[in-house]
Write a structure and sequence with these properties.
- By secondary structure, the chain is of the alpha+beta class.
- It is about 40% helix and about 20% strand.
- The chain has 17 helices and 19 strands.
- It has a 9-stranded mixed beta sheet.
- Strand 18 and strand 19 form a beta hairpin.
- Helix 2 packs across helix 13 and helix 10 runs antiparallel to helix 11.
- The longest helix has 20 residues.
- It is elongated, with a radius of gyration of 33 Å.
């Protein structure tokens, strides 16, 4: 056994000699059955972690973190949007962040290059969702639903060059409202436009205008102008850039990059400069070229009916029939619309902001059929609110006005001016929580009163409950208003009732 112990010690010494190497030598010897380190300088043996060259901590391009202050603003915007959707009878829906790639490219081939592809361990080819409309159509077809009014809030991803200054990101939030089902013409469409008006008015972003057109009018216009049918979609995609580019640049793209005859592009140019109301609709009915298209006439008739309903809703003055509006997505089949701010937050001094459309949508009657094995059609119309762009405008307005944001909703703070009152504070705050009151306290056994009061002022907490020796003897508490700094004594047993009364008055 002694020999076994000696062998173990020698093995250990050999292993240690392999682990510890120059520049500081280590020799190990055994004296009297004990291993001794004769020479060792171990402090430099643990090599420092090598720094990565040019390593910068940042979020991926086209994404961002949202601070607690930003989250408060964002949630207020979303509350306004979702409460409007619910007011109009919509039900909530959620779908996966990624879908089978074939599903997403079924009607979005032009956006193929903008999708983020994934591949899971099961071998399915997947992509992050590009919008919320295609997943909704897939959901309807998969569940064989013929009628639904839904809203959905969720992130979507597009692999494109971000323009942060315009509220454009690669990862962003969409808020969608859709009406699926067979109904009489233009009633659901009119409600969608009414919803956009209610939301934009409720957010107080400034004056706005909703541009309206119809894809049948667009296609009819292309046909009578001489655009080859094979080029309809690609020319439509160019026309969709008119909110970002001048007609001169769009025309150049159509002619030089997409091979459209110059005279055909010029005929299109005559139409895309037209915008107005009912009078323009009547004029287009009489247009010698456009009136030759059966498709265009169907679209014009529906728009005329739409304007009648919009007048009844009291929002016709917010709507403009605009022949330049195209909406590049393939799945639109009828009415299309986009809302733009005319002078966003003008009083706030940010009139130069140009974020493009802040809401958009349209009718897509054929999309569900592409997912249904039997090709069953479910007519749909919907809208999407541009949350990121709206958020950007609201942020800029608040910066200029110097508005502060409360990052918590705490209503009451439990404080003490003296030591050894931690347990009493814990009892009080538990009573407040159990009563549904939003309450806080400092996580210190003996905090200073001034520190506690300053915290309440910094966080905008309206009320403070104070417990001390005098209050404990008398069976009372002090209730302090942070804004006025006035204090009143209340009975301990009346704490919850008194706080609820104060909160109801504020």
């Amino acid at each position: 056994m002694p020999q076994l112990g000696l062998l173990c010690r020698k093995a250990w010494a050999a292993l240690l000699s392999q682990l510890v190497r120059p520049p500081h030598a280590v020799s190990i010897r055994t004296v009297g059955g004990h291993s001794q380190i004769a020479e060792a300088v171990l402090t430099s043996q643990l090599k420092p972690r090598e720094e990565k060259p040019n390593f910068v901590i940042k979020v991926p391009k086209g994404t961002r973190d949202l601070s607690p202050q930003q989250m408060v603003v964002r949630e207020k915007i979303l509350d306004t949007v979702v409460s409007c959707f619910k007011r109009h009878g919509a039900k909530g829906l959620d779908t996966p962040a990624f879908e089978l790639k074939d599903m997403l490219t079924e009607k979005s081939e032009e956006n193929f290059g903008l999708m983020y592809d994934l591949k899971d361990q099961g071998g399915e080819l997947l992509s992050l969702r590009y919008d919320l409309t295609v997943p909704f159509a897939r959901y309807l077809a998969m569940n064989k639903l013929k009628k639904m009014k839904r809203y959905q809030v969720g992130k979507v991803w597009r692999r494109e060059s971000p323009a942060i200054v315009q509220g454009r990101y690669r990862e962003f939030c969409q808020c969608d409202f859709d009406i699926a089902g067979q109904f009489d013409p233009m009633i659901p469409d009119a409600e969608c436009l009414k919803i956009i008006c209610e939301i934009l008015s409720g957010l107080q972003l400034g004056d706005f205008l909703i541009k309206v057109n119809d894809r049948r009018i667009v296609d009819g216009m292309f046909a009578v102008c001489g655009v080859p049918e094979s080029k309809f979609r690609t020319i439509c995609a160019s026309m969709d850039k008119l909110d970002k580019m001048s007609w001169k640049d769009v025309r150049h793209e159509m002619v030089v990059k997409k091979g459209l005859a110059p005279e055909v592009a010029d005929r299109i140019g005559d139409y895309v400069q037209c915008h107005g109301g009912i009078s323009l609709l009547e004029e287009m009915f009489q247009d010698p070229r456009l009136s030759q298209s059966k498709q265009a006439l169907e679209g014009l008739r529906d728009l005329k009916l739409l304007f009648e309903y919009l007048t009844l809703f009291g929002i016709a003055e917010k709507i403009s029939f605009d022949l330049s509006l195209a909406r590049g997505l393939d799945y639109y089949t009828g009415v299309i619309y986009e809302a733009v701010l005319l002078k966003p937050a003008a009083q706030a001094g940010v009139e130069s902001l140009n974020v493009g459309s802040v809401a958009a949508g349209g009718r897509y009657d054929d999309l569900v059929a592409t997912f249904d094995p039997k090709g069953y059609k479910v007519p749909c119309v919907g809208l999407s609110i541009g949350v990121e762009r709206i958020f950007y405008i609201v942020e800029q307005k608040m910066k200029i006005l110097g508005e502060k944001v409360r990052t918590s909703e705490t209503q009451v703070f439990v404080a003490t001016p003296q030591k050894n009152f931690l347990r009493e504070r814990l009892k009080i705050i538990a009573e407040l929580w159990d009563a549904g009151i939003k309450a806080e306290m400092l996580y210190k056994e003996n905090p200073k009163l001034l520190t506690q009061l300053h915290y309440c002022e910094d966080m905008g907490i309206p009320l403070v409950v104070i417990i001390g020796e005098q209050e404990q003897k008398e069976g009372t508490l002090k209730l302090r208003s942070v804004a006025s700094r006035e204090e009143v004594a209340i009975k301990r047993e009346n704490l919850v009732a008194e706080i609820q009364k104060q909160l109801s008055l504020s």
